[in-house]
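ugh finaly. both done.
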Amino acid sequence: MRILIYCQHVWGVGHLFRIREICRELASHDLVLVTGGPRVNVPLPDHVRQFHLPTLQADTSGKLFSDDGRPAKQIWPERIDQLIDLFRREAPDRFLIELYPLGRTAFRRELDPILTALQEGRLPPCRVYCSVRDILVEKSDPEAYTQRVQATLNRWFDALLVHADPTIIRLDETFPNMAGINIPVVYTGYVAPPPTFMEERTAFRRNIGLAADDKLVVVSAGGGKSGYPLLETVLATQALLADRMRLKVAMFTGPFLDARRFEALETAAGPEVMVRRFASDFKSWLASADLSISMAGYNTCMNLLTARLPALVWPFNGDREQPLRAARLAEQGWLSTLTAADLDPARLAVRIQTVLASPPRPRAPVDLDGAGRTARYIEAYSQPQSGWRGGT
């Protein structure tokens, strides 16, 4: 079966990592992953072919621009033509769209022509699914947003796949009227990477030269556009703790951190601190750590749940997504949250020492089979008839 997956990251990289885990579970199929955000060196499974549209990314105001400085209005025609040509050439059996129409609204100008052509029979028929995370951000006009999402899903999609555990959070907590969605809404569980086993942890710690009494703190900031205050504070905190414990810090800034800020972190880092933008073996670093300090994006939190290590998270407060996720997972015993007041080296030092000295907290179970369940759902249905697609 040929599956075309559309994933556009314009700010962070969690969307791309989540889709990669779903791709792993679809290993017996021919996959084409369509991307178009800033290029990131993320290894993909061997059975995945990547097709990269002309790049668009977002600035701090959300405005889209290209990597060569051209405005988005000059890029859209190129992307639309390339996407239609790709769809005709590949003739997929399944089309999985990440987030749209619940988000990525700007990209409707390249997706709606594909969806319209499928409905009208001008492209080979295929089933269409929306893949969405657990929490949606606030909208300026919730009523208009809700009506548009419902109409788009009901008209063009076969199912809405929600990558969440409904015992932790349900989509209707951030989408006001689920009753107006007439297609199946399927909770897949959270999409998380496979676990790392103890022998792998032991071998990795040995390979990176950690002594038995070394404490490894892994610090990360997602894509890197929002986490600099946290990274800066951790460096100062490590210096305070250097004479109190054997503390090693592995800091991963994210690929999109401003170059000057990255250089500032490298300059300030002491001999016990490693600063990198990104690591393909990040999962091994995290699984080998004694503590994680991070933000609270979807992908970061799933890594924490898989690694099952103590964690302090500083949620990005630009919208409700990370604060809500962090609060729910804290209630379940999986992590502890940091506030703005904790971004003080002395306060953070106390928090770090307290967590490292505390016994493991009891944790409520969380469904982490989202990638496998998503793959099984996509595989379960036969090829639809041409023309209109319903929700059955």
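ok and the 2nd:
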Amino acid sequence: MDDDFTPRAFRAYQRGQLDRIPGIDRLDPEHRDAIRAVAAVLPFRVNGYVVEELIDWDRVPEDPIFQLTFPQRDMLDPADYRTMLRLVRSRAPRAELQRVAQAIRARLNPQPAGQLELNVPRLFGRPLRGLQHKYRETVLFFPANGQTCHTYCTYCFRWAQFVGGPELRFVDRESVDLVHYLRMHPEISDVLVTGGDPLVMTTPVLRRYVEPLLDARLDSVRTIRIGSKALAWWPYRFTHGEDADDLLRLFEEIVASGRHVALMAHYSHPRELSTAVAERAIARVRGTGAVVRCQAPLVRHVNDNPFVWATLWQRQVELGAVPYYMFVERDTGARRYFEVPLARALEIFQGAYRRVSGLARSVRGPSMSALPGKVLLDGVAQVGGQRVFVLKFLQGRDPEWANQVFFAKFDPRAVWLDDLEPASGRDEFFFEEGLRRLRQARSSLGGARATGGAPWPSTDAS
């Protein structure tokens, strides 16, 4: 392989190795205790590449990558923080620390947007806890070996996958159930392999999950998506060693089967694209015929600035990647530390959008992955003399909702769909009655229809 830089060995640091992290001695003992206290509740893991190549330790603690990876005291409610700090400083027994931490986690909405209630499909009456099926054309698959990450993002909406109990986790140890489910649901065209991060797995393990999807009898599956932060957090996964080469060969094999490969990359800040290895990683992925699509949430302390987003999107285009989504931070975990009012989120998106060319305007946002579906905040308008938010479904639990526009009263303090009120004067939005019917149907049938388990009411969803 043509190398122009030296690879590094992967090394991860967790809560117990905090004092060994290069640069951490720049923080005073009180700040380090704060990290330990919050990391006893929310997941914390960082690797040497992020610590040494991406974090600007001269700007800590305000540095955006530091904020993106190291827990901060205000991520917990003040009373909860004081409790955890006391337990950490007193070296409380592990069992007590876990008991208190679990109680705090339960108050942080660990599985938002009906993931447990409405997203879990069933096969012959049996729940498939390694799958989620919210939208008709797409199913999410959670391979057991991919339920960790090279580095944890502090905003992560899937934090319960790492520190929650078994009842909160989505995981499957093999793809047999997935294949059976796909055969029963030919309406599914896209499989999203997610986690955690599937690319923490070695390529032979990933192959065991992916290759069954290439069976000719699953010709209805046209796209394999892989949700991963590895391009940002550990780009060496794609550039160095036989396993990296094998991963790229796997992508080529999927493309050769006639299917589309989409690597759903998570870039939250332009600095994640600033290293030579990050550039090389994207180039190698693109060389296989796979497409890199880029998405991230808008989070305070990290990227709540239109110049940051414009720079990020423009850099993605320069490297041949596709700007795809700006998300609104989900209503879970440390959301109050990161949340941005919807009105401000729209200003940031529009400010960034105006600064880039048409090639970067493939991006959509701000988008909320909420209970009824993926809802785009499309603008602010005057309707009937009233200032309103203009919203649109990009995806809906009921496929009939897709692309439908609706209006909500303008509220400068609202941070999520649930904070909004209909602008029509009605008591509820048009989709809420349909949501009630979905919930009733799932409840009456033990969570889904006895055989297929499709989560929507449409008659064409076998």
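summary for the 2nd one i guess: Residues 372 and 397 are 6 Å apart (CA to CA).
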